[in-house]
Amino acid sequence: MSGAKFLDLNAPLPDELVPFKGKLGPNFNEVRRKVVSFAVEECIPMLPRYRQEFEELRQKQQDPLLTPQPPCFKELQQKAKDRGLWNFFLFGGGGLSNLEYAPIAEILGAVPLVNAAMNCSAPDTGNMEVIHKFGTPDQKRRFLEPLMNGEIRSAYAMTEPGVASSDATNISTRIEADGDDYIINGHKWWISGAIRPECKLLVVMGKSKFDGPRHRQQTMVLVPKDTPGVKIVRALSVFGHRHDHAEIIFDNVRVPKTNILLGEGRGFEISQARLGPGRIHHCMRTIGSAEIALESIVHRAHSRKAFGKLLKDHQAIHQVVAEARIEITQIRMLCYLAATMADEYGFKAARKYIAMIKYAAPKAALKIVDEAIQVHGAHGVSQDSGLSALYTNLRTLRVADGPDIVHLQTVSKMEINKQVSATGRRMSGENKNIVKYNKFEHVPEISYAKLAPHLQSKV
Ligand SMILES: Cc1cc2nc3c(=O)[nH]c(=O)nc-3n(C[C@H](O)[C@H](O)[C@H](O)COP(=O)(O)OP(=O)(O)OC[C@H]3O[C@@H](n4cnc5c(N)ncnc54)[C@H](O)[C@@H]3O)c2cc1C
Q1: CA of 142 to the centre of ligand 1 (A)
Q2: Which one of 3.40.190.10, 1.10.540.10, 3.20.20.140, 1.10.10.10 gives the CATH number of domain 1-121?
Q3: Is the previous residue joined to 12 through a cis bond, with omega within 30 degrees of 0?
Q4: Could you tell me the pTM of the whole model?
Q5: Which residue of 236, 399, 406 sits with most ligand 1 atoms within 8 Å of its CB, as the best mutation to test the pocket?
Q6: What is the pLDDT of residues 189-244, one digit of tens each?
Q7: Domain range annotation of the chain
Q8: Is the CB of 36 inside a 6 Å radius of any atom of ligand 1?
Q9: Half-sphere exposure of 425 (CA within 13 A, CB side)
Q10: Contact at 8 Å (CB) between 400 and 190?
Q11: Measured from the CB, is residue 405 less than 6 Å from ligand 1?
Q12: Is residue 4 pLDDT above 70, yes or no?
């Protein structure tokens, strides 16, 4: 891809795909070209009109957060349908593998509106996948069809302010049977999109059992947003700006038992499935965001003069650009590896690589955006630059997509015992005088017999 712009219609494939070339199917190039054309020919030119129409509607609204999508967005959705790109995420973009989806998702992360216009926005995608996989025919008719037609939107309600929600077994919302109904009582927050007028459905995770195995207590139910007892308390702010994430009280909310997904105590099972391919879509899009942040650095370097010369002629900028390119290459390779592992061995087996990229991608992209803001000076934090919004998105992703530490733990758990070895012990070396003079309390010897029986004879 050297020398070519990321979003050119004729941009070659990322160099990082070269090692994986043999795994790309016959449809891949055509599908990728279709998405790039849609982004370049329809979405980018529509952006100024979208912003203007949205602003006009916003000014008419008492609460700006209740601004509906402007009419031109419907036009864009229709264009996505006409180009065969509607619900692109389903079945990995028309039968694409996870690896094939990755470089295409980068485009979705680089151009605003593309993802939403193709009906591929979170949390709808995850919710649609769940209802598609686990919903009854009636649930599919009532909720999945309008979601897939883009007539309504949805939200996913798991996180609670009162408990550490990175551990889903802590969730305390009660979903209790009462005759033919369930009654829901709980307090949720950060429920993305629930403020939007288009959002009509909440997929709620709670507990219907409070004892027994920790992963068999959770239950998921479908709750129409206008059900009595659903109280949207407030919209939450991100870095001081009001967003469409809702804080919600469920106060004796009654839904028919037929709204349950899969069965009582099976919510955790669903949430695992919910995070199938969607698990790495954020990471893939993040790489696209990093790519355009780097392009903004290069643009600024060619157009801004300081201390008598263009920024591009200052040595310090070269380091920023080179480091950004290296970081993008690293996360892209890791992302393609995670996607390939998922394709070859399934998501469970690919868990370690998925956790790695979920940790690494937003962190690296955030650093690049941070450098881009620095290179743009005050302009970079202003509303005239897209960088401040990009920074906000990536920073929140490091919590919203599971805190960094949770992904690190997934990786470390698989390393910490596996890597106990005689080689490690030899490399560490030891000070024999510690035992000889016996002035310190001793840490017990590692039990190689238990941790690495295969190496015991060599210790
Ligand atoms: C912008 C945004 C959008 C979101 N959208 C949604 C949504 O649509 N639906 C929804 O249900 N939720 C949503 N969330 C919530 C998000 O999923 C949670 O914030 C996340 O899972 C973390 O839960 P928590 O906030 O309770 O943090 P906690 O679980 O309290 O964790 C906070 C911190 O505690 C520390 N910590 C936690 N565990 C460990 C550990 N094992 N070891 C060491 N330290 C640890 C870490 O520093 C961690 O970052 C969103 C959040 C944001 C910011």
Answers
A1: 31
A2: 1.10.540.10
A3: no
A4: 0.92
A5: 399
A6: 999 999 999 999 999 999 999 998 999 999 999 999 999 999 999 999 999 998 99
A7: 1-121, 153-267, 275-418, 422-458
A8: no
A9: 12
A10: yes
A11: yes
A12: no
